[in-house]
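Crash report, auto-generated. Payload:
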Amino acid sequence: MTFTRGEIRNLFKGLAFLSPWLIGFSVFMLLPIVLSLYYSLSDYNLLQKPVFIGTENYRALASDGIFWHSLRVTLLYAAVSVPLGLFMSLGVALLLNVKLFAQPIFRTIIFLPSLVPTIAAAILWRWMFNQRLGIINGVLAPVLGWFHLPTPPWLDSSNWVVPSLALMSVWSAGNTVVIYLAGLQDVPRDLYEAAELDGAGPIRRLWNVTLPMISPVIFFNLIMAIIGILQVFDTPFMMTKGGPNRASYFYTYYLYDSAFTYLKMGYASAMAWIQLLLVLALTGIAFWSSKRWVYYQGK
Amino acid sequence: MTSNRSKSLSKVAVYAALIVICGMAIFPFAWMISTSLKPDTQLVETPPRWMPSEFAWRNYKLAVTNEATHFPLWTRNTLIIATLAVIGTTFSSAIVAYGFARIRFPGRGALFAIMLSTMMIPFPVTMVPLFSIFVWMGKHTPIQWLGTTRPLWAPAWFGSAFSIFLLRQFFTTIPEELSEAARIDGCSEWGIFWRIMLPLSRPALSVVALFTFLWAWRDFLGPLIFLQRPTQYTLTLGLQTFQSQHGSTPWNQLMAASVLVILPVLILFFIAQKTFIEGIATTGMKG
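Recovered output after restart:
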């Protein structure tokens, strides 16, 4: 390959502008990734130099019951909160897309919870979920009492804790709603008019016009959810400490504990790599399946 | 064809649904404010009451001045970290984005693809090595890293993938002719960036600044790992220790503290509502 003078000058100019990122990428991303891979193959407790032990950490993980448990908890949470979040947000966005007089106010109100910093949301919901004094049971008690049903124990029960956290995550899904709404507003109006002329009712229009047209947005939200869901850490750490009986001991929580509570840096790094591979596998599946259900206009 | 009557009926149904949903969205806020103003004795009532018999504003004062908290100090720390992160991210990301958007050089496409793919790397992959890198840098350079706020804002000065991406998308929409004209007038590449691109990109720059601020304001795992002394804590980390330390939880004070943490974000939102919504919308559109 030969470059002209102008091309070489451009190369230097380009790299000069890119230099902050090139440095940052090398020091804060590439180097840590390489180190992480090396640590995952080492015995490393931060105080002594890492000692190479091959695949020992991975083999230990395979027979570590807590590892499998934390993975199960995370996937259970994902199975509840991802579909719930994706479809509820879509439903709400569809409602917000109807032309109504007070619509800007509705949109603002639904967006507000997603602004709340996690720590404030965690404290607030811990208080609301409180089995005896919480407002949720305060409201539910008379209704449930009518049917002679007990009030749910929410965060205090190992069966209820993960669904409770998933429920809370729906409250702050305003971001997703806004992204859907932007997608809905981009659907050309003449498509609806044409469909209406052809005699398509509201449900047909939703199914045959709206959903195909915003399927790329649904796909985008799905990918974001996959990347985020395996990293859930803040809310269980703040609200339940992983309990009761480790019922909300999420994957990243165990990873954090392995690294910074037990100082098993190599073990934690092996977990991190499994997490990365899981994210890649899940997004890979999503991309593969997208050929069947995502419709790109003009392609 | 749908008749007018069924159309207005369905509008009523949409109104009703939205009012119910908004009610559920508002409900926790209302309960938070209500609790934050309750005297201690009214916290344990069943059924819970919504309207405190008297407004206990002292809860706010107690939350801020409580001996277990360093609320003013934590606020100051958070503001310092957030400000440095905002300036650093916005400035460095704009420079890098300009390189990606406006300078044609071999390898640009590949580098851009690499940058985008870094957004998929989960933080746990890098957090353990980052920790040991900061330990190492503390031993081998004159600057201390661990136990200071530096790990929380210094990386921001080297661009963030998300912000670079957002700004690049915006820069590519600015007509090339403007840069050409400046180039003919003898303007340097940096001059074009500084004097033409940046002033034209205020909306995109404010989106980046706003998002970075929010991210820094609510970040938890970073401070949890890198900060060591309570006097260095951010609001998030401080409140976390406050809520987990107390044996019998002073819910009214905790709610008051939560209100105070949310308030700046809400104010920011109402000032810059358009920037917010457009910013979030574009992240979805360009994906």
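Post-recovery validation: The radius of gyration of chain A is 24 Å.
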